[in-house]
Amino acid sequence: MKTAREWGLMPEGRLRPGPGNAITDVAGVSVGHRSLRGEGLFTGVTAVIPHPGDLFRLKPRAAVEVINGFGKSAGLMQVAELGTVETPILLTNTFGVAACTEALVRRAIAANPAIGRKTSTVNALVFECNDGSINDIQALAVTPADADAALDAAKGGPVEQGAVGAGSGMTAFGFKAGIGTASRLMRIDKRDFTLGALVLANFGGTGDLVLPDGRWPDPRAPSSPERGSVIVVLATDLPLSDRQLQRGARRGGAGLARLGAFWGHGSGDIVLCFTTADPVEHEPAEAFASQQRLADDHIDIAFRAAAEATQEAVLNALCMAPATPARSGRIYPSLADWLKENPLL
């Protein structure tokens, strides 16, 4: 299948994509999937690992923006309070949060046996969307072993998109959707930086999607209210404070709004933004730590990158997912099929 850019949906913007147009364009970031298939099952887990080291010992600076909080994610409160992440980030279905949390906790304890005994406990970070329209969510199919498999599969380079991993059973705007990713390059004061987005797209009312060229695709499906969710993970190597990271996370919402989203009452819309620059040591050797921070007068380029990358990542999730039947028998069509039938003249 073709990406949104290959379909010609992305006009030349202010910022260029990275070499892979993926969150993994940020050095050190890796992504892995575990897809579950079986009788009534169409679900999975997706892992985002900020750097290849021990995340508990060397914590990336981070912030979270809850745009609309109809969600059951784990670990957000501590990120908001302390401004760091200390485990990989797992995405899954709503009822898979507990299994993924257990996997992250056990993995962290195995690497750091002092956790919970001689040092602090660990804050497992898990995000979710409800894939129950396609997947039998009551089966509670996701296990800690599936989370481990997604983590073990994580690698840099190209990221598989569409109906894969946590995105297996997700839908958006009446179309089949799932996992999508994109990136943008930024040049500030003669230095090069990257911002990448990975989304779990499961939101948007039927018929509300607006393409960058102004078209409103009709999925030819029954109208549905905005009751889905979207998780946006933004990664960058730009040195930003946790306050600036939250401001950047908020701009992920601008990318969603460009597509026609309005964050309905029943939608869980959450953005996590982290930087690989100047991570925080769990046990610092000195009382004071030196950290770089971008001057606010130069931050607009990061805001633009967050909006552009989020928008394109969602479009990739839609374009890369094939038509899929729901548990009710309804077919969630592929945006790619609509684009084939409705070429841009």
- Tell me the series of helices and strands, N- to C-terminal: EEEHEHEHEEEEEHEHEEH
> Low-confidence stretches at least 5 residues in length (pLDDT < 50)?
none
Strand count, sense and barrel status of the largest sheet are: 5 strands, mixed
State the helix count: 6
Q: What is the fourth-level CATH superfamily?
A: L-amino peptidase D-ALA esterase/amidase
Architecture overview:
- This is S58 family peptidase.
- Belongs to the peptidase S58 family.
- The chain is globular.
- It has one domain (23-279, 292-336): L-amino peptidase D-ALA esterase/amidase (4-Layer Sandwich), CATH 3.60.70.12.
- With 345 residues, it is an alpha+beta fold.
- It has six helices and 13 strands.
What is the secondary structure topology, with strand pairs?
Blueprint: E1 30-38, E2 41-49, E3 58-69, H1 76-82, E4 89-93, H2 97-111, E5 125-129, H3 144-152, E6 171-172, E7 175-176, E8 179-188, E9 191-202, E10 229-236, H4 242-258, E11 268-281, H5 300-319, E12 324-325, E13 331-332, H6 335-341
Parallel strand pairs: 4-5, 10-11
Antiparallel strand pairs: 1-2, 2-4, 3-11, 6-7, 8-9, 9-10, 12-13
Helix pairs in contact: 2-3, 4-5
Features:
13 strands, alpha+beta, four-stranded mixed sheet, single chain, 22% helix, L-amino peptidase D-ALA esterase/amidase, 6 helices, five-stranded mixed sheet, 345 residues, aminopeptidase activity
Overview in brief:
By secondary structure, the chain is of the alpha+beta class. The chain has helices at residues 76-82, 97-111, 144-152, 242-258, 300-319, 335-341; strands at 30-38, 41-49, 58-69, 89-93, 125-129, 171-172, 175-176, 179-188, 191-202, 229-236, 268-281, 324-325, 331-332. The two termini are 21 Å apart.
